[in-house]
Amino acid sequence: MNFITVKTYDELSTKAANIIAAQIINKPNCVLGLATGSSPVGAYDKLTEYCKNGIIDFSTVTSVNLDEYVGLDSSNNQSYRYFMNKNLFDRVNINKEKTFVPSGTADDIEKEGEQYDKLIKSLGGIDLQLLGIGLDGHIGFNEPDEYFTAETHLVSLDASTIKANARFFASEADVPTKAITMGMMSIMQAKKVLLIANGAAKKEILEKAFFGPITPKVPASILQLHPDLTVIYSEN
Ligand code: F6R
């Protein structure tokens, strides 16, 4: 594991964007695993800048996102598909048809999960998976549990996750209580994993996840077993 500590969010975002840019330059037809939330916004801004300046080209990149709220469709401005369009896809020259986010409005979420895993497999897996980390140690929406779940699956969000994500909604009551998330198999099979976390509030969970025992009670701890993991943390 490569654990990098930086001083500012801007520095974190530059380093993360540079790692993603290097991936795209090295393999123009790569598969990027992408995340939403507040952590990657700065990196997506930098990638947009690099694309506008001709440093990187998204035209042959494919992306697969980690997760989506159940019940929200792409036109809902709280959906993760909407977030990705706004923060990245609408700003770079990616082919939208090659950007995938699990559907939170599928009739059968279990089947949607199976199809999503098949899709990732058919793409040859993920070259670089970008992750954030929840205060409870979740990655994607893999919440603390008695076991790790391999496949893309339906989850009930923990009270702490609903509370943390309420900042993006009008009220806590508006936060969906269920989500569909990639499981640990696709994440752990990604060739490279890049996890970013900013703010002093994340320090304790990072210590548990990366310097404590590997346990499904701290889902991100499974990443200690990944052969090519980079973590970037900024206290501010
Ligand atoms: C988002 C995701 C989540 C977030 C995590 C941290 O697609 O999968 O695991 O990465 O909740 O969120 P922020 O970055 O808002 O602190």
Describe the model:
The chain is of the alpha/beta class and 236 residues long. It has a single domain, classed as Rossmann fold. Helices cover 32% and strands 18% of the residues. The protein contains seven helices and ten strands. It has helices at 9-26, 41-52, 80-89, 109-122, 159-165, 184-189, 203-211, and strands at 2-6, 31-34, 62-65, 67-69, 99-100, 128-131, 153-156, 178-181, 192-198, 229-234. The strands form two sheets. The chain has a seven-stranded parallel β-sheet with strand order 1-10-9-6-2-3-5. A three-stranded antiparallel β-sheet has the order 4-8-7. Strand 9 (192-198), helix 7 and strand 10 (229-234) form a beta-alpha-beta unit. Helix 1 (9-26) crosses helix 2 (41-52). The longest helix is centred in the first third of the chain and has 18 residues, at 9-26. The radius of gyration is 16 Å and the shape is globular. The model has no long low-confidence stretch (mean pLDDT 97). The structure holds fructose -6-phosphate. Fructose -6-phosphate binds at residues 35-39, 66-67, 132-134, 138-141.
